[in-house]
Design a protein that fits this description.
The chain is 27% helix and 38% strand. With 239 residues, it is of the alpha+beta class. The protein has a four-stranded mixed β-sheet with strand order 2-1-5-6, with no helix packed on it. Strands 7-8-9-10 form a four-stranded antiparallel β-sheet, with no helix packed on it. The protein starts with 5 loop residues before the first strand and ends with a helix.
Length: 239
């Protein structure tokens, strides 16, 4: 805020005549005593206390405490759904002034429940969140102008149908996830079982006996063990 500075007298007001302005204020202000003082091209540097003399049967001094403000910036209102029964409203300005509040909701409507609903900004403006019927309104204002943003509460309201739909989606997701897990376990089981069967076949093959190459080819020089035993018994038998 600009510091209040005492200015020189603007001019003189008369009960039965037009006001007379000082030379420094001609073309700059419009004076209508005793209540009105209008600056034609106001600047923030013009803030301060001005005075005018009211002349008539008696002389009085009229003071005007003048404050100028820049127009307020636009605001942005956002609604965030937190759960089926609550919502959050956030109101912010371009110069990073923020307030937020929570809303409690049922299947029909919402109402403001808690949080910061208003504040005075650094520039002296008012920033406020409030509810009007089925709308949430963010208002930014000062003595010069105001801006606002409005949203319908039904963005936050959860109907019974939407709640049921959400529940069905969750259940379907769980079922699909269960099927996928079961399929993965089945594939792993089959893979492990196949590996074990293959290993058993390999072990059986390594333990089996293989005929000598000469016997397999029918070499007459190779005499089977059974024939040798028979020949030995024949030689030892008495005539």
């Amino acid at each position: 805020m600009t510091d209040v500075v005492v200015k020189i007298t603007i001019g003189t007001c008369y009960y039965d005549a037009e006001p007379k302005l000082g030379e420094n204020f001609i073309g700059k202000v419009e004076l209508s005593c005793p209540a009105s003082l209008i600056f034609t091209s106001p600047q923030t540097s013009d803030c301060g206390v001005y005075s005018a003399q009211l002349t008539g049967d008696r002389i009085e001094t009229i003071k005007y405490n003048v404050t100028f403000q820049d127009p307020v910036s636009p605001v942005e209102l956002k609604l965030h759904v937190i759960s089926d029964s609550s919502c959050k409203a956030t109101c912010s300005t371009e110069d990073d002034e923020v307030i937020d509040t929570s809303l409690s909701c049922d299947n029909k409507s919402c109402h403001l429940a808690g949080g910061e609903r208003s504040k005075v900004t650094k520039s002296g403006a008012s920033l406020r969140l409030y509810q009007s019927n089925e709308s949430i309104i963010c208002n930014h204002s000062n003595q010069v102008n105001w801006t606002q943003s409005k949203k319908q509460i039904n963005i936050c309201v959860r109907s019974e149908g939407s709640t049921l739909q959400t529940t069905l989606i969750v259940v379907a997701g769980i079922i699909v996830a269960g099927i996928i897990v079961a399929a993965i376990i089945g594939l792993l089981y089959c893979y492990i079982k196949k590996k074990l069967c293959f290993a058993q076949r390999q072990t059986g093959s390594s333990n089996s006996q293989t005929l000598p190459q000469s016997q397999a080819n029918g070499d007459p020089r190779v005499i089977p063990e059974s024939d040798r035993l028979m020949n030995g018994n024949t030689a030892e038998s008495p005539v």
